[in-house]
Design goal:
Layout: H1 4-38, H2 51-64, H3 71-86, H4 94-97, H5 99-115, E1 125-131, E2 134-138, E3 146-152, E4 155-159, E5 170-177, E6 180-184, E7 190-192, E8 196-199, E9 202-205, E10 219-227, E11 230-234
Parallel strand pairs: 1-3, 2-4, 3-5, 4-6, 5-10, 6-11, 7-10, 8-10, 9-11
Helix pairs in contact: 2-3, 3-5
Length: about 240
């Protein structure tokens, strides 16, 4: 009978397949829609091919993958379609309405804070937050198991080089919007980002370590959402 760790790894693998399938399906639908439109075979209004609709699609995919932050692009896209395309209030300009984005990001951060209350207060888990600022954290836990990292309109640097992973499934839940994150890890750690969704941004492993130097028994999962932001893994 599989133990608890094997079950967690199986669940993560299933989530990875689900994410890949959803992403592939959305790309196929978007590609076919644009192809049919270019061939004049799909007589849909231009709003269906706008950046507002794209934000809604991004949000729906994010929510379907269990990322509650996906409601941010969904609501932004829906609000602007309502204002401009349904109500026809064209005298409102983006420069007037952009604070709505800050309101929605703020709501997302409040929701994330509420969901993070279950994180243990000991040093084996982190709850790092950088909002409109730069934050650096050094972690020396000898049973590090993960935690939550949030960067909104700012950057956060997490130094894990002096930490030791626990024997459990170790997961960092990352949420970045208009910001960046940097993780410095030991050279022998295996970093799994298969459950990290990156939209209009990038997340790179810049370590000077070959795969043969990493220990398959020392795995840190980084999951979550990066929207209009970036991140990187370093070992120096």
């Amino acid at each position: 009978m599989p133990d608890r760790h094997e079950l967690k790894d199986k669940i993560m693998a299933n989530n990875e397949v689900k994410q890949r399938n959803w992403t592939g399906l959305v790309l196929v639908i978007i590609g076919l829609a644009f192809l049919l439109r270019n061939l004049h075979l799909l007589p849909l209004p231009s709003v269906f091919f706008s950046w507002k609709t794209l934000l809604i699609i991004i949000g729906v995919v994010g929510i379907s993958l269990g990322k509650r932050e996906g409601f941010i692009p969904l609501i932004i896209g829906a609000l602007f379609i309502l204002i401009y395309d349904i109500l026809g209030l064209h005298y409102f300009h983006f420069r007037d309405l952009w604070p709505l984005i800050l309101v929605l990001v703020g709501i997302a951060l409040l929701m994330r804070h509420r969901s993070s209350r279950g994180i243990r207060t000991d040093s084996n888990e982190i709850d790092g937050v950088a909002i409109f600022s730069g934050v650096e954290k050094q972690v020396t836990a000898q049973e590090f198991s993960g935690g939550k990292v949030t960067a909104a309109f700012g950057g956060i640097n997490i130094d894990l080089r002096n930490a030791t992973l626990s024997e459990q499934t170790n997961v960092i839940d990352l949420f970045t919007i208009f910001g960046g994150s940097e993780f410095r890890v030991p050279s022998d750690w295996t970093i799994n980002v298969s459950q990290l969704t990156v939209l209009f941004g990038a997340f790179e492993d810049k370590r000077s370590t070959s795969p043969s130097q990493t220990d398959p028994n020392k795995v840190l999962y980084i999951k979550g959402l990066i929207l209009f932001g970036g991140g990187e893994i370093l070992n120096g």
